[in-house]
From TrEMBL, chain A:
Its main location: membrane. InterPro entries: Tetraspanin/Peripherin (IPR018499), Tetraspanin_EC2_sf (IPR008952). This is Uroplakin-1b. It comes from Lepisosteus oculatus. The chain crosses the membrane at residues 12-39, 59-82, 89-111, 240-260. Keywords: Membrane, Transmembrane, Transmembrane helix. It is found in: Membrane. Belongs to the tetraspanin (TM4SF) family. It is a multi-pass membrane protein. GO terms for cellular component: plasma membrane. The keyword Transmembrane applies. Heterodimer with uroplakin-3A (UPK3A) or uroplakin-3B (UPK3B).
From TrEMBL, chain B:
Keywords: Membrane, Signal, Transmembrane, Transmembrane helix. It comes from Lepisosteus oculatus. One of its GO terms (cellular component) is plasma membrane. The keyword Membrane applies. The chain crosses the membrane at residues 208-227. Pfam families: Uroplakin_II (PF07353). Residues 1-16 form the signal peptide. GO terms for biological process: urea transport; water transport. This is Uroplakin 3A. It comes from the Eukaryota.
């Protein structure tokens, strides 16, 4: 081989190896980000699960495994490129295409399903499930117990921690009938006690003022931003970071395919 | 009622004051009325022309707007001639079927102090808020428990029906004698409780980003499979 083309080949090899290194790092980052989302620090999973639209979590799980797979395959790819063996390169290409397809699925799922989180979705679910009692006579499935108690405790936690009430505000409880309304009279509980201003020890500052609806003693802000914010960020993260990784991976795999075709067997 | 100041024989008459009870201003209470309660502003300095004494009380009467406009039927007709009176005082919530037939007496409170009216700034002071709220407003519909009690109550401030319009009237009474009355308030509508099934959860427009990601990634995947 001529010295010049030898340098050219070496450069190309180095470029492919570096490309795979970047893929490996990105794969690790994707895995870490998906672990963070799945961990669900804000305890929002039960709210999303009850709506039936928890595909964002499935996208995060796929992202976790593809991230790890990308890392492993990219390291293998670096080795294969530097060894320049046709067999290894073929294995690498096939694995990469396989992982690529899965990651495409994850990114598209996350991108399309985050559109579902409109305020009315959470409003309807809150009115139908918050404070819903389990049926007295029939046994409840684990699923029902999980949903009922999870939604009630999650909403209580959100309203207390973020000092908000309902999805749009306390008027949610006034405009609609709800499970909460079935259990509690409007005179005594126009809205849940969690919407009332609390002091440091968790006691309500003034129940009467909260019932009447005087402003600092009742939280008038809606909780939608605190619910949708983390969920939409999760959707954005999984979809757009996945998209960026796939664009890069596409060019690296095309480069390796080209290199494969140029190699003598 | 300027003409009655001139004629002293009108002291015993039922004074009909041309003021109307009002719901508390939305600037103070954003969520008033609720499904079954209405917070009314107490009549501050309204009855002063009648020179009320401390033992007099103010009664609040409630009626459904659609039942028609009622005039007061006074129990003391000895020295005054009073025009068309059609409702009796002292009816309870149960007797009037929740105010659908004739007005019922919901609650009663002492004369508000006109010389030192409640200060809205006191509402942010936790120690003074209960007193300030009590002096400033009266909450109709605040007692959900007295409705089911079997013994006949003197009066029951029962919860109102949702999605119904009501009118309110203040009566200045001394024992059972009516001294003065306000006009019937404007029609106040309680909130209607809609069913959550009516909530539309349609997502509206799809975000552009989702479409971009879908199209480009599908394209890349097909190119990759084609090249392989």
């Amino acid at each position: 081989m001529v010295a010049k083309s030898d340098i050219g080949v070496r450069c190309f090899q180095a470029f492919l190896a570096w490309g795979n290194f970047v893929i490996a790092c990105c794969g690790l980052a994707l895995m870490a980000m998906c672990i963070f989302f799945i961990f669900d620090r804000d305890h929002l999973y039960v709210l999303v699960y009850a709506t039936g639209n928890d595909s964002i979590w499935r996208a995060a799980w796929i992202g976790l495994f593809t991230g790890f797979a990308l890392f492993c395959t990219a390291v293998f790819g670096m080795y294969a490129v530097l060894k320049s063996k046709r067999g290894l390169l073929l294995v690498y290409i096939l694995l990469m295409i396989f992982i690529f397809a899965f990651e495409v699925a994850s990114a598209i799922t996350a991108a399309t399903h985050k559109d579902w989180f409109v305020p009315n979705l959470f409003l309807k679910q809150m009115l139908e499930n918050y404070n819903k009692p389990l049926p007295q006579n029939l046994p409840s499935t684990q699923d029902e117990i999980y949903k009922n108690s999870g939604i009630t405790s999650t909403w209580n936690m959100i309203m207390t921690e973020y000092q908000c009430c309902g999805v749009y505000g306390p008027q949610d409880w006034l405009q609609y009938n709800s499970q909460f309304r079935q259990q509690n009279s409007d005179s005594e509980y126009p809205w849940p006690r969690q919407c009332c201003l609390q002091d440091g020890t968790g006691g309500i500052v003034n129940v009467n003022a909260c019932k009447i609806g005087v402003e600092p003693y009742l939280f008038t802000q809606g909780c939608y931003d605190y619910i949708a914010g983390p969920l939409i960020r999760q959707g954005l993260g999984v979809s757009w970071f996945g998209f960026a990784i796939l664009c890069w991976t596409f060019f690296v795999v095309i480069g390796v395919m080209f290199y494969y075709t140029q190699l003598d067997s | 009622a300027i003409w009655c100041i001139v004629l002293s024989s009108c002291v015993c008459c039922g004074w009909s004051l041309s003021v109307k009870p009002e719901a508390v201003s939305p600037r103070l209470l954003r969520f008033n009325p609720t499904q079954s309660t209405v917070s009314l502003a107490k009549p501050l300095c309204v009855f002063d022309s009648v020179k009320p004494t401390n033992e007099m009380m103010v009664d609040v009467y409630v009626v459904h707007s659609l039942s028609g406009t009622y005039s007061l039927k006074s129990l003391n007709l000895s020295t005054c001639v009073v025009a068309t009176l059609t409702f009796e005082t002292g009816k309870t919530y149960k007797e009037t079927n929740g105010g659908t037939e004739t007005p019922y007496k919901a609650t009663s409170f002492g004369i508000p102090n006109c010389t030192s009216p409640p200060n809205p700034a006191d509402l942010s002071v936790p120690q003074r808020i209960d007193k300030t709220l009590d002096e400033y407003l009266v909450r109709i519909g605040s007692n959900p428990t007295c409705v089911g009690e079997p013994e006949a109550e003197a009066f029951c401030n029962a919860p109102l029906s949702d999605g119904t319009s009501y009118r309110f009237k203040y009566l200045l009474v001394n024992g059972t004698t009516t001294i003065a009355e306000t006009e019937w308030s404007e029609s106040i509508l309680t909130r209607k409780a809609l069913s959550p099934d009516e909530i539309d959860t349609w997502i509206g427009k799809r975000s552009g980003g989702g479409i971009v990601v879908t199209v480009i990634l599908s394209l890349l995947l097909f190119l990759l499979l084609g090249a392989a």
